[in-house]
Specification:
Elements: H1 2-17, H2 21-47, H3 52-73, H4 82-99, H5 105-133, H6 136-163, H7 167-189, H8 196-216, H9 224-254
Length: 257
C-alpha cells in the first residue's frame, strides 16, 4: 500500500513538473474558447433539437473545461496569479449552473451574457500568465489562442442572431469578431518567430475566414439548415487550425525555457 501511494505521488509530481508555461498559456486560452463553444452549442440545441451532434459537443466541451481547470490549478509555475484562477472558477460556477438548465430562449439569453463574463475572467488569467513568461513568443500563444476563441464567438453570435437571442448585440459582435480575426491573422503573419509550417497554417486560416464570410454576407443561396452546417463546420475548421498554430507557438516558448 505504501509503495502504491508513493508511486501515485511520483506520477502526480511528474505531471506537474512536465507542465510548462507554454502549455499553461495554451490551455488557459482554450478556456476562453470553450466559454463560447458551450454557449454556441446550447443555442444550437434550441434551434436544432433533433441534432445529436450539438448535444455531444456541448457535453464534451463542459467536461474539457473542468479538466483544463484542474490542470491549471495544479500548475505551480502560476502560483503568483492563483487569485485570478479563483475568479475564473467562480465565474464558471455561475455559468455552468445556467448551462445545465433546460434549453430555452430565456436561459440562452442569460447564458449569452454570462459567457462574456467568463470569457473576460479567463482572458485576464491568460494575460497574467503571458506576463509571467516574459518572452515575446508568449504573446503569440495568447493571440493565436484568442483566434480559437474568436472562431467560436463568431459561431455563437451567428447562432444567437439566428434564434433571436440579443440580436443587436449578436450582429454587432459578429462583425467586430470577423474584423478582429482578420486583423489578428495579419499580426501573426508578421511575426519574425514564424516557421514555414506556422505560416502555411496561417494562410489556411485566411482561406477558412474568406469562405465563412461568404455565408455571413448572404452570398450562399442555401437553406437555413445547410447554412448552419456550413458556418459551424467552417468555424470548427478555423478552430482546429488555430489550435495547431497555438500549439506550435507553445513549442517555441517551451524550447526557450
Amino acid at each position: 500500500m505504501k509503495l502504491s501511494a508513493v508511486f501515485i505521488l511520483l506520477i502526480l509530481s511528474l505531471d506537474v513538473t512536465a507542465f510548462s508555461m507554454g502549455d499553461a498559456i495554451n490551455i488557459a486560452g482554450r478556456q476562453r474558447m470553450l466559454s463560447q463553444r458551450i454557449t454556441q452549442t446550447y443555442i444550437l440545441r434550441g434551434i436544432q433539437p433533433e441534432a445529436e451532434r450539438h448535444e455531444k459537443v456541448f457535453t464534451r466541451s463542459i467536461q474539457d473545461f473542468k479538466q483544463n481547470h484542474k490542470k491549471l490549478d495544479r500548475f505551480h509555475g502560476a502560483n503568483k496569479v492563483k487569485n485570478q484562477l479563483l475568479i475564473v472558477q467562480k465565474e464558471w460556477e455561475f455559468f455552468e449552473e445556467i448551462a445545465q438548465q433546460p434549453v430555452s430562449k430565456e436561459n440562452a439569453a442569460e447564458l449569452f451574457e454570462r459567457s462574456n463574463s467568463l470569457l473576460s475572467a479567463a482572458h485576464i488569467y491568460v494575460v497574467k500568465l503571458q506576463q509571467l513568461a516574459q518572452h515575446n513568443s508568449a504573446e503569440l500563444i495568447n493571440v493565436a489562442g484568442r483566434q480559437r476563441m474568436l472562431s467560436q464567438r463568431i459561431a455563437k453570435n451567428y447562432a444567437a442572431k439566428l434564434w433571436g437571442i440579443s440580436p443587436e448585440d449578436a450582429e454587432s459582435g459578429l462583425q467586430m469578431d470577423l474584423s478582429e480575426y482578420s486583423n489578428r491573422l495579419n499580426q501573426l503573419l508578421d511575426s519574425p518567430f514564424n516557421t514555414p509550417e506556422i505560416n502555411n497554417n496561417l494562410h489556411k486560416a485566411k482561406d477558412h475566414l474568406s469562405y465563412a464570410s461568404r455565408g455571413f454576407d448572404g452570398e450562399m443561396k442555401i437553406s437555413e439548415k445547410r447554412q448552419i452546417q456550413v458556418i459551424t463546420g467552417t468555424t470548427d475548421l478555423m478552430l482546429r487550425n488555430m489550435n495547431i498554430i497555438t500549439e506550435q507557438y507553445a513549442e517555441l516558448l517551451n524550447s526557450r525555457e
